Amino acid sequence: MSQEWEYQIRLNISDDFAEIARTDPQNAAIAPIAAILAKHHAALSNQFDAFVNYVTEAEKQGVEHFPLYKWTKATIEDPVKKAKHVKSFSIYVEGEEVYPKAAADALEAELAPLVGSGVVEKLSKHDTNPENNPQAPAHLR
Fold first, then answer.
1. Is 99 exposed, middle or buried (0-12, 13-18, 19+ CB in 10 A)?
2. Which of 9, 64, 102, 137 is deepest in the core (most CB within 10 A)?
3. Taking phi first (over 0 means left), then psi (-120 to 50 degrees means alpha), and beta for anything else, what does residue 125 get?
């Protein structure tokens, strides 16, 4: 029996537009992205903001319940990694972080022409297969 992985689309948005995408996702400057996302019942989620939220929640509820706490905390405290993640966005579809391949493929196809537009620098599709995803270094587990 084959495993049915779920998928997620991610965008890297240029420095000039990343803050707009984080704080005002309906801004006319990123209207082409917003139009595609609306069509797919999707929304942007900033990676850095998600990491900060994870750390904040862990510190409220007890870090021992959050296996990625040390790794995530180290990431948000590193200025180089912050600069990388502040312009990285995951796309949620119908409020879900991961979704079927068909939904990811449709989003990917519509967003791909925006790469290199001056707004979108990079587009990538990720799956939930653990072999394809980075694991926390031993010293941060």
1. buried
2. 9
3. beta
* pTM flag (> 0.90): no
Burial of 11 (0-12, 13-18, 19+ CB in 10 A): buried
Q: Is the Cα torsion angle 11, 121, 30, 78 positive or negative in sign?
A: positive
Question: What is the model's pLDDT at position 17?
Answer: 96
CA distance 9 to 64: 30
10 CB-contact burial (10 Å; exposed 0-12 / middle 13-18 / buried 19+): middle
Is the separation of the CB atoms in 123 and 27 below 8 Å? no
Say how far apart CA 135 and CA 45 lie, in whole Å.
21
**Closest C-alpha among 109, 47, 113 to residue 84:** 47
Q: Can you give the pLDDT at residue 1?
A: 39
Query: Is the model's pLDDT at 19 over the cut of 80?
Result: yes
Q: What distance separates the 2 farthest-apart alpha carbons in the chain?
A: 46
Closest CA to 49 of 13, 19, 80: 19
Average pLDDT over residues 10-36: 95
Q: Taking residues 20-25, what's their average pLDDT?
A: 94
